[in-house]
Amino acid sequence: MSRRRFGTRLFLIACAVAAAGGLGLLLGSSLSPSRGEPREEARPSSAILTRVPISAKVVALTFDFDMTPGMLFRMQSGEVEAWYDPTVLHVLRQERIPYTIFITGLATLTYPDLARSFAHDRLVELGNHSHRHFAFTPDCFGLPFIGEGRAQEDIETAQQTIQRITGVTPRYFRFPGGCLGAGDVAIVNNLGLRIVHWDVAAGDAFNPDADSIIHYVGDRARPGSIIAFHLGGPNAPATADALRAIIPSLRAHGYKFTTVTGLLSLLECGAKGPVGRRSLPFSLTPAAWKAPCRDKPPVL
Ligand SMILES: [Zn+2]
Fold first, then answer.
1. What is the pLDDT of residue 293?
2. Could you tell me the distance, in angstroms and rounded to a whole number, from the CA of residue 64 to the centre of ligand 1?
3. CA 119 to ligand 1 centroid distance, Å
4. Which DSSP symbol is given to 85?
């Protein structure tokens, strides 16, 4: 079966599961979701960072920590043990990989100690992934629609929850399912957040086949790539196994790893500090870059 056909089949399975169980999921990306086949790559946009245009062989592994009210209910009722896989975190720690987690407000509330441990880990960066992982458009991979006029409240609730529990103020926001409607970019930016999606969707959501993830990422990763995974658990059962192969394979090809901010600092920070706005896909004030340029995230 071709990879594309496999991806389509996986998408249909995932939608059926999501519709039946209210699971959160993120497969590929569709900035203007249609009823046809999902796009596997996010479309570049002046307002959305999907890749950082550098030539150095450095990539950012990013992980979505989804949590819908339906997922929380299934955990509290004992149907699901956990919505993340500790093995994923173990592999990342063992390999000393800096990474960015896009965490939902509900996941932060559900796992406060884990969220704080991310905040205290110098290799981990936290981004905002909405509060309830509802879709910001009515047609987004079977996710429940957030409702008209509810976007700002949801994003702010997540931001305040993450700040209150971890002490970290996220700089970046990732839309659940990668779906956004007219006006959503302005809402996010007006809250002081920048939108970060991906150029490589690992395709690990509901995918039990580690080999397909390994080959998909291996074929597409390039300098400056932002690679989107999930933190594992029942909605990403093969992520840990895939990472065990992907990390050494990329290293063997000369790649290093950093956070999203780390990628941006490679583009924006000279030896003496910020080099100004060059070719960033979105504008950042010099003030926003003082700290990252002074204290550059590790590249390992
Ligand atoms: Zn998600």
1. 76
2. 5
3. 19
4. -
- Measure 224 CA to ligand 1 centroid, in angstroms: 21
Residues 109-119: tens digit of each pLDDT: 999 999 999 99
CA of residue 276 to ligand 1 center, whole Å: 32
Q: List the domain boundaries for the chain.
A: 47-260
* Host H or E run for residue 49: strand 48-49
Sign of CA dihedral 108, 238, 86, 118: negative
Q: What is the CB neighbour count within 10 angstroms for residue 242?
A: 28
Of 193, 162, 165, the C-alpha closest to 47 is: 193
* Residues surrounding ion ligand 1 at CB below 5 Å: 26, 64, 66, 176
- Extract the tokens encoding 138: 């009515």
For residues 110 and 85, the answer to whether their CB atoms sit within 8 Å is no
- Which of the two residues, 134 and 277, has the higher pLDDT score? 134
Pairing mode, strands 58-65 and 256-258: parallel
Q: What digits encode the pLDDT tens for the residues 3-34?
A: 443 333 333 333 333 333 333 233 333 333 33
Residues 298/122, Cβ–Cβ less than 8 Å: yes
Instruction: Name the residue with higher pLDDT: 265 or 88.
Output: 88
Cβ partners under 8 Å of residue 177, min gap 6? 25, 26, 27, 29, 30, 33, 135, 140, 141, 143
The answer, as to whether pTM is greater than 0.70, is yes
From the candidate CATH numbers 3.50.4.10, 3.30.559.10, 3.40.50.2000, 3.20.20.370, the one assigned to the domain spanning 47-260? 3.20.20.370
